[in-house]
Specification:
Length: 245
Amino acid sequence: MRIDVVSLFPDFIAQCAAFGVTGRAVERGLLWLHGWNPRDYAEGNYRKVDDRPFGGGPGMVMLIDPLRNALQAARQADPAPSRTIYLSPQGRPLTQSRVRELAGEQRLVLLCGRYEGIDERLVAAEVDEEISIGDYVLSGGELAAAVLVDAVTRLQEGALNDAESAQQDSFGDGLLDCPHYTRPVEHELGAVPEVLLSGNHAHIAAWRRMQSLGRTSQRRPDLLDEQALSKADRKLLEQWRVEQG
Ligand SMILES: COc1ccccc1CNc1ccc(C(N)=O)cn1
């Protein structure tokens, strides 16, 4: 997958992606990242990229033309069609199911705003969709873009090894993950749940599913509402609630 990022800090995303799973994906040629700086496409010797907001108010707004020129340069850099996404608090909340859809695209062009945002005429004319990574305000869209890059890269074929993709699946099933434990068995902070030491894989799988269901019902009941629970799941959840007391 090729991802072009239009940002005043074009190397930001590439540096975020340079580690771990995404770094490996870049090395394996599964992810191709390129940054485009609107300042390189700005007029005048001050290379102006922002200006005062019409109607008054604090802060600055990003100008149309430097962004538009950078977006066009990014799109023209590769013949494959691309989808332009603007990361903003006004966007549609990003979910794993949306990540799965975007991971299937050949190309994404990510537009990162700074200051108070971007002239709305550019958004209306050049943006295919606005996405928010959560209900909070950041100093720029770059961190949100880096989150999206990470999430879609993990789903590229060959990006994860077997253990990592199994982990991804346990999250991807729409429930919160179960608790995890490792050595030592005994610790001043407590012991490891017996079932995990039993070697009984059916019991372990049932316990993990029960923990995922219980945690989801306790912490994110909204996610549970979306799940059509099987009879077995409802039984496990009931058992978890009894054990919780
Ligand atoms: C004041 O900042 C802006 C105002 C308008 C647009 C973009 C920005 C850049 N900041 C962002 C970007 C994305 C998210 C998110 N929740 O996805 C949060 N902040």
